[in-house]
Amino acid sequence: MNVKKDLPMTWHFERISARESYTFRWGRGSGMITVHRGDARGSHSDDNLVDCVQVGIDWIDDQDVRVQARKWIRVNAGRGVR
Predict the structure, then answer these.
(1) Which residues make beta-bridge pairs with 26?
(2) Separation between Cα atoms, residue 69 and residue 50, nearest integer Å
(3) What top-level branch of life does the organism fall under (predicted)?
């Protein structure tokens, strides 16, 4: 049994520089990733929310979140996101 497949929520943290980092949170079946400034791993709140990214609800694990996070970073990091 793949334990990750059964997770209801997953977080992915990316440090861009000493002053810039983001946490990407995805809940199974939600259809979106929320992007939070700073380290919000384990949090369920919307503190420091900077973006919401629409995604497919058919994702199966946290690898999908990592891929989308890197795409978002390429476009938004270092630009003073919202």
Answers:
(1) 10, 33
(2) 13
(3) Bacteria
The total number of structural domains that make up the chain: 1
| Residue owning tokens 């999908």 | 64
Distance CA 59, CA 10 (A): 12
Which domain covers residue 33, as residue numbers?
4-76
Q: Which amino acid is at 73?
A: I
Within a domain: residue 24? yes
% pLDDT > 90, the chain? 51
**What is the pTM (predicted TM-score) of this model?**
0.82
Residue 35, in any domain of the structure: yes
